[in-house]
Amino acid sequence: MFCLVYKSIASLAFRKIEIAEMLEKARDFNAKNDITGCLIYYKGEFLQYLEGNQIKVLELFDRIKSDNRHHTVELVSYGKIDTREFEDWSMAYEDFLGDNDTLQFLKLLVASYFESPDEAMEPNPTSEYFWRTAKRLLKSGELKKF
Ligand SMILES: Cc1cc2nc3c(=O)[nH]c(=O)nc-3n(C[C@H](O)[C@H](O)[C@H](O)COP(=O)(O)O)c2cc1C
Hints:
The protein is of the alpha+beta class. Helix content is 36%, strand content 26%. The protein has one domain: Alpha-Beta Plaits (2-Layer Sandwich), CATH 3.30.70. The C terminus is likely disordered.
């Protein structure tokens, strides 16, 4: 099992409705290919965590990199993992547009990472703990799933 995290900048024309359409297709593809993960959208930037078979994840990442709905795709981290973090989700999604109190913690982590990655507080998105926290918040049911 393999996981990969990247970040990118959304193209201006890529807005909420397009994100919803993209997610529908992505979830269908991911479910068929046993890929799970989480996509976070924050102030025009994406952060995505993908997990699954190494070859399948790398093939998908190649396609994602050439998608013109975002640009400046940067690999943040990758590696082998023993178990999945998002076994129940073909692609969990959170956009931080709303102002939900339960999200403050995660928002803080994401903000510190995007705004000054080198000094980002721990856990930052390169760590498993960050994604575990994201999962817990999403699972708490207080967040609407997109
Ligand atoms: C931020 C972002 C995240 C994406 N995540 C996925 C994903 O998890 N799974 C997926 O199949 N496609 C995802 N896509 C869409 C792919 O980039 C691509 O459009 C899709 O795999 C279809 O590829 P094709 O047009 O080469 O057939 C994502 C696109 C963007 C912009």
